[in-house]
Design a protein that fits this description.
The chain is an alpha+beta fold. It is built from seven helices and 19 strands. It has helices spanning about 1-15, 30-35, 95-100, 125-130, 170-175, 180-185, 340-350; strands at about 50-55, 70, 100-110, 115, 145-150, 155-165, 190-195, 195, 205-210, 215-220, 250, 255-260, 265, 270, 285, 295, 300, 305, 320-325. Strand 13 and strand 14 form a beta hairpin. Helix 1 (about 1-15) runs parallel beside helix 7. It is globular. It comes from Aphanomyces stellatus.
Length: about 350
């Protein structure tokens, strides 16, 4: 278990270095504003228990220093190495952070020369040289995993890489799903009401593969949200993510339940008090007699805290991949233990 923890932290350090301007001094005020915030190394997460690890999300949005949060690796598979899984969600962080829409992406590891495929076999070095665009002269071992995506154009993309968390804009602009990118994002699309388009998985979960090395994507919902509608409807007060419990609530890691601020109540703190004023609807709506916020056009969320999501354009597929004749995409999964996490560490720090 300790080895797994260290490997996850190592993978996170790589992602966080791409998304932070400088480590944040985590004061009590910062902890209140950004529940579960952490710096590379994961030491900030030990306060919540041995199963919490620091996971970062790569984003190109400005002014997002330390876009990283402690994630419970016991209740969730974590998006790292050869494992698709949960990324942080930021629904109750300040508005500039809450705009992030996390995706568990399979990204290329440059010059990988030792890849493990879906069957658990190590791919021959000569095959990796054929599928990598750069023929590196490095002798150091750079490890990764190999996935095959059957594309809409009839070819198969062979990718040597690892899983990591990225923002939706990064995923689309990099075309990490190749010509499947738009389809993948549509599968995770949020609800559309009153001119408001919610973020991926209605900002209550992670958009990611439905299985290991799968090109099919769907929502992995935070606990307490329905799995039948892309995580839109709250169904209980149970929580397992610091970004859960709405804009005016917080997840208590000890009890695993939401704690709501004054003026809000209900599952995931999704109901407002009509006598509490418009502040419970983020000053972008009003609280109805039924305890539901009625939001202004282009605003949404339980407390009208979110601005309508917009998409960045999808670019051409990335490099370090090869299109080969039509073949059945790899679909079988293999157990990922300590050795798999070791592969992730080697790939990142090589």
């Amino acid at each position: 278990m300790q080895f797994k923890y260290l490997a996850v932290v190592a993978a996170v350090t790589f992602a966080q270095d791409e998304t932070t301007e400088a480590p944040v001094t985590i004061t009590p005020t910062v902890k209140v504003q950004r529940p579960g915030v952490c710096n590379a190394g994961g030491k900030d997460c030990t306060a919540y228990g041995p199963d919490y690890v620091c996971v970062a999300v790569q984003s190109n949005l400005p002014n997002l220093a330390n876009l990283a949060q402690c994630v419970n690796s016991k209740t969730n598979a974590v998006c790292v190495g050869g494992t698709p899984g949960a990324c942080p969600t930021f629904n109750n962080w300040p508005t500039n952070f809450a705009r992030v829409q996390p995706v568990c992406a399979f990204v290329t590891v440059k010059d990988c020369n030792k890849a493990t495929n879906a069957a658990g076999a190590v791919v021959a070095a000569r095959e990796l040289q054929a599928t990598n665009s750069s023929n590196s002269s490095k002798k150091a071992e750079i490890q990764c995993y190999q996935a095959n995506y059957q594309l809409q154009n009839g070819s198969t993309a062979k990718i040597n890489g690892i899983y990591k968390c990225v923002d939706k804009d990064v995923y689309r602009q990099s075309a990490y799903g190749f010509d499947l990118t738009d389809k993948q994002m549509k599968n995770c699309a949020g609800n559309v009401t009153n001119g408001f388009t919610a973020g991926l998985c209605n900002q209550h979960g992670t958009c990611g593969p439905t299985g290991q090395f799968s090109a099919e994507y769907g929502c992995m919902c935070n606990k307490g949200y329905s799995t039948n509608d892309n995580c839109n409807a709250p169904v209980s007060d149970v929580c397992d993510a610091f970004g859960a419990c709405g804009a005016l609530g917080a997840c208590d890691p000890t009890s695993g339940k939401c704690k709501c601020q004054a003026g809000v109540t209900g599952p995931q703190c999704n109901k407002c008090d009509p006598t509490a004023g418009n502040g419970t609807c983020s000053n972008h709506g009003s609280c109805g007699l039924d305890g539901t916020c009625v939001c202004q056009a282009t605003y949404g969320g339980a407390q009208c805290e979110s601005k309508s999501a917009t998409d960045a354009p999808t670019k051409a597929p990335r490099s370090n991949t090869t299109a080969v004749p039509v073949a059945t995409a790899a679909s079988s999964a293999f157990a990922v233990g300590a050795s798999a996490f070791a592969v992730a560490v080697a790939a990142i720090f090589a």
